[in-house]
Amino acid sequence: MTRNFAPLIALLLFIGASAQAAQTPSSASHLDQVLEQGVVRVCTTGDYKPFSYLDPQTDAFEGIDIDMARSLAKALGADARFVHTSWSQLMTDFTAGKCDIAMGGISVNLDRQQQAYFSIPYFKGGKTPITRCENVDRFQTLEQIDQPGVTAVVNPGGTNEHFARANLNQAKIVVFDDNVSIFKQIIAGKADLMMTDAIETVLQANLNPQLCAVHPDAPFTYSEKAYLLPRGDDAWKAWVDQWLHLTKATGEFDTIYNKWLEQ
User: Is residue 107 part of a domain?
Assistant: First the structure.
């Protein structure tokens, strides 16, 4: 009797092909691409001290997350290539594939989470005011701030503007494009205050003696900062999370953080 093994052979070939397909990623991870190309592309705004600042004198980026980006690249045996973006353009540039990771004091929020992954958080804080020192007692609460005759200045497109517009109905909101010199608007009397991340209010108060941070240890909100990663790339996220965990555990992050905050 002759047996027809063709159906069995076809089935075995199908099972083998399916198993191989299951083991082969449909697209290469950013981790593989960085290792192959020797370059990690880092989106950053360059206007948010102490995390990311583009020095106009040297045309070079500096700050906590710039040093962290170089640490990440070194751990991969790669070079960090910085891609200049803005807060209003950040998600557009990132989802367009212009970078492998975005770094620079980026706050975790659910809108961004819809379009991208976040690493584990590396910093916790919240929004609080910075104002001229003589006005600290005037602006302790959101109720005190949200009054006719009060002017709050904001940089466009980021969480600072979103927070101000969500909480201020009577106060005037003025948008100022240059996040580097925005605090000079308060010193010059063109605005009464700005609400931003507590760490930035502390740094700017150190840099500008006329300004004082308002209760930076008890901000209005709770927020976390993390690194932005491509949605769906689990291998890349796992590597970045582990690298970040180790920099925190070994004290490398604290060394970098203290270096820039104490300047």
Answer: yes
The CATH number covering residue 186 comes to: 3.40.190.10
The model's pLDDT over 139-171, given as tens digits with 9 standing for 90+, comes to 999 999 999 999 999 999 888 999 999 999 999
- Residues near 110 by Cβ (< 8 Å), separated by ≥ 6? none
User: For residue 207, is it within any domain?
Assistant: yes
pLDDT in tens, 85-138: 999 999 999 999 999 999 999 999 999 999 999 999 999 999 999 999 999 999
Helix axes 252-261, 234-250, angle to 10 degrees: 70
Q: Which two tokens stand for residue 201?
A: 């209010």
Is there a contact between 147 and 135 (Cβ–Cβ < 8 Å)? no
For residue 162, give the H/E element and its range: helix 159-167
Pair 45, 85 in one domain = yes
More confident residue, 154 or 263: 154
Q: CB of 128 within 8 A of CB of 198?
A: yes
Using CA of residue 247, residue 61, residue 52, residue 97, what is the dihedral sign? negative
* Secondary structure of residue 73 in the 3-state scheme: helix
Query: Strand, helix or coil at 133?
Result: helix
pTM attached to this predicted model: 0.76
Decide: residue 36, CB within 10 A, 0-12 exposed, 13-18 middle, 19+ buried. exposed
Please indicate, yes or no, if residue 15 is contained in any of the structural domains.
Answer: no
